């Protein structure tokens, strides 16, 4: 049964879980306060990773690579952190993104959900106090403002501002978040601005849309082979 025809607490549970996973991954990962130079050192910067019981491939748009030191995979679900390939590889000659930021992806457990079937209900939900509280870093809906929502090709995007305390150092209050379905799971992707490095609304949405599109493209092929990293 779709989550849209079930108890609305089901949706809140999934979104809150994704938010907590995102925050836990960022807070326990590398120091993002250093911006594009704050990631761990790696011999190589992988462009993709297979997570969540080898069921979902996560890959970023051009110039973004996976930071394995900031990635958490519990098997049932996962959190993946991505940043500039040059920074992660500690190689100035490696690729850099056209729009610098911090990308994350969280993958839910198997949910049977259908994000792509109910954009209007999602829009209403995230405009409500319950929805904004689910997005909030500290659970306070009053500190979250929804700046815009969009629906594209089965993915729902939110542009929000969270002025609550407790976020990772070095990140601005504005962020873009998207939700879509991949192989019976909800994937939640987020693009965070770095403080002092603002991006336009159009650039933010385009970058997150490219992230979502890359993930869905990588997962079209039904294969259990681990991608090269």
Sum up the structure in keywords.
229 residues; disordered N terminus; 26% helix; 8-stranded antiparallel beta sheet; 10 strands; globular; two-stranded antiparallel ribbon; single chain; alpha+beta
Folded structure, characterized:
- The protein is an alpha+beta fold.
- Helices cover 26% and strands 28% of the residues.
- The chain contains five helices and ten strands, in the order αβββββαβααββββα.
- It has helices spanning 8-28, 85-88, 119-127, 129-135, 201-218, and strands spanning 48-51, 56-59, 64-66, 72-73, 78-84, 102-107, 144-152, 155-162, 171-182, 185-194.
- Strands 3, 4, 5, 6, 7, 8, 9 and 10 form an eight-stranded antiparallel β-sheet that branches. It has a two-stranded antiparallel ribbon with strand order 1-2.
- The longest helix is centred in the N-terminal third of the chain and has 21 residues, at 8-28.
- The protein is globular, with a radius of gyration of 16 Å.
- The protein starts with 7 loop residues before the first helix and ends in an 11-residue tail after the last helix.
**Alpha plus pi helix count:** 5
Would you count the extended β strands for me? 10
Q: Approximately how much beta-strand content do the residues carry?
A: 25-35%
Coarse structural class:
alpha+beta
Uncertain ranges: 1-13, 25-42
The geometry reads as globular
Q: Radius of gyration in whole Å, from Cα?
A: 16 Å
Average pLDDT: 80
Task: Encode the helix/strand succession as letters.
Answer: HEEEEEHEHHEEEEH
Largest pleated sheet: 8 strands, antiparallel
Helix content: 25-40%
- Alpha-carbon distance between the termini? 37 Å
């Amino acid at each position: 049964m779709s989550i849209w025809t079930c108890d609305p607490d089901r949706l809140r549970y999934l979104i809150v879980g994704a938010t907590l996973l995102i925050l836990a991954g960022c807070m326990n990962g590398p120091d993002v306060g250093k911006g594009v130079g704050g990631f761990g050192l790696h011999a190589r910067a992988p462009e993709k990773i297979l997570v969540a019981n080898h069921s979902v491939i996560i890959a970023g748009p051009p110039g973004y690579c996976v930071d394995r030191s900031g990635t958490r995979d519990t098997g049932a679900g996962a959190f993946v952190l991505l940043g500039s390939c040059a920074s992660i590889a500690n190689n100035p000659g490696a690729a850099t993104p056209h729009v610098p930021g911090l990308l994350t992806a969280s993958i839910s457990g198997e949910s049977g959900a259908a994000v792509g079937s109910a954009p209007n209900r999602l829009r209403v939900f995230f405009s409500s106090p319950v929805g904004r509280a689910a997005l909030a870093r500290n659970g306070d809906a009053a500190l979250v403002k929804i700046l815009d929502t969009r629906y594209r090709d089965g993915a729902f995007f939110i542009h929000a501002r969270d002025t609550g305390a407790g976020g990772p150092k070095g990140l601005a209050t504005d962020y873009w978040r998207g939700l879509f379905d991949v192989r019976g799971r909800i994937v939640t992707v987020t693009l965070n601005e770095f403080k002092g490095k603002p991006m336009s609304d159009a650039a933010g949405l385009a970058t997150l849309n490219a992230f979502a599109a890359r993930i869905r493209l990588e997962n079209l092929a039904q294969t259990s082979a681990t991608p090269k990293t």
